[in-house]
Amino acid sequence: QVQLVESGGGLVKPGGSLRLSCAASGFIFSDYYMSWIRQAPGKGLEWVSDISSSSDSTIYYADSVKGRFTISRDNAKNSLYLQMSSLRAEDTAVYYCARREYSGYVYYLDYWGQGTLVTVSS
Amino acid sequence: SYVLTQPPSVSVAPGQTASITCGGNNIGSKNVHWYQQKPGQAPVVVVYDNSDRPSGIPERFSGSNSGNTATLTISRVEAGDEADYYCQVWDSSSDHWLFGGGTKLTVL
Questions:
Q1: Contacts with A, B 47-106, CB within 8 Å
Q2: Each residue of A60-83: pLDDT tens digit?
Q3: Cβ distance A37 to A22 under 8 Å?
């Protein structure tokens, strides 16, 4: 069965860096676009970034993280990453990785991990 | 930039029908997805591409999309349907996913 397991969250000071990982299993990882979505405590969902399946690595970022966050993947290791730098208090959130599925017309997020909590505080 | 607007809360009695709306400029031209999120859990897609249901999602969940409003309809609501619901679209003008603010469904 499809599994996505995030790790790497924790407490970091403002201005610091953190690298999140998402280990994928149960499907051919290299066939799928992947996404990061976050949720601040008590708030709604906010899309963070997407990366394409192949080596051309088409990448998209939300304006709120562009220039500070870097998404990447290692298809040999079935892993997705999010390198976060210049972290701010407003980056505090649970970070989810999710798989993009193609319906035949459009992409949607069909599997999500359980999330990893990032807290940015001094 | 494109904005999706959802009511913060909807309440319904068990066995009744709940309708959760997602408003956006000409949203009927977009493909809307709906996610259910229960407390402490990751979101789960309940409707994709306006009206399709993933396997395992009850037929009680349905979706429609026209004009400036997309709607998630939950028929014969059960206590277990109590959750936050989010609509989502891909905004091709900005290459961004967009989520609505979420609607908390309360089963009375």
A1: 48-49, 52, 54, 84, 86, 88, 90, 95-102
A2: 999 999 999 999 999 999 999 999
A3: no
